[in-house]
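Students often ask why we bother encoding 3D structure as a string. The short answer is that it lets us treat folding as translation between two languages. Here is a chain of 254 residues written in the first language.
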Amino acid sequence: MSETSRQLAEQLQERFGDTLHAIIDSIGEVTVEVAGDDLLEVAAALRDEDRFGFEMLIDVCGVDYANYGRDEWATEETSASGFSRGVEAATPGRMTAVLDDLVVEKARAPRRFAAVYHLLSIRNNHRLRIRVFAPDDDLPVVPSVIDVWSSASWFEREAFDLYGILFEGHPDLRRLLTDYGFVGHPFRKDFPLSGNVEVIYDAGKQRVIYQPVSIEPRVLVPKVIRADQVEAVDLASKVETPEGTEADEAANKE
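And here it is in the second language, the structure alphabet:
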């Protein structure tokens, strides 16, 4: 922890106390975690009070913590020969239904979705992150900070578009990067890599249409081709001799 981040963390703790659920210092930058009900009050204080002066909102990003901290690869016991195959099909892209019995519902880690606000104080040369978890994983909702920082408008629209996080109080919460007819939220961990629909031009209707994606799902495991599985090919026998070459070679020898 640098001296600057340590002082900032102490000021935050002194000012907000138990309102902050966590104060984390990582690589010289401070992150605080607050509840959604306290977000607007904390944000306004961070902007208006001179000792903080976070007048600029740099970015708002969504985070999907599904499978956070879980690893399906044997990395710690790996030998010098390389990584082993997946020891536990833990991530959504591994098609766990192929390996496990189908179940109606599986236990999920709590607090799946979060919005992270990146702040900058120009006068004090400080940076700060605010993390707010949505209390409901099925319908993630957090307050909009557009009344505190007007620059949050498009940032929150982007997080809604890519993660499906709803920002309560946003005046125009529409998709920003994907098409209005797009199905799902592409940055969610359980979103299929091939998507749900594809766009093609229908010559009969003479317009662009949506249709179910035609890509077949594949297991994301590298394919290993061993030497004994490769058919040997005699390249010399495949080379065709141009006409007249043999006669020319015989003439040259004479």
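Translate back mentally: The radius of gyration is 28 Å. Keep this in mind for the problem set.
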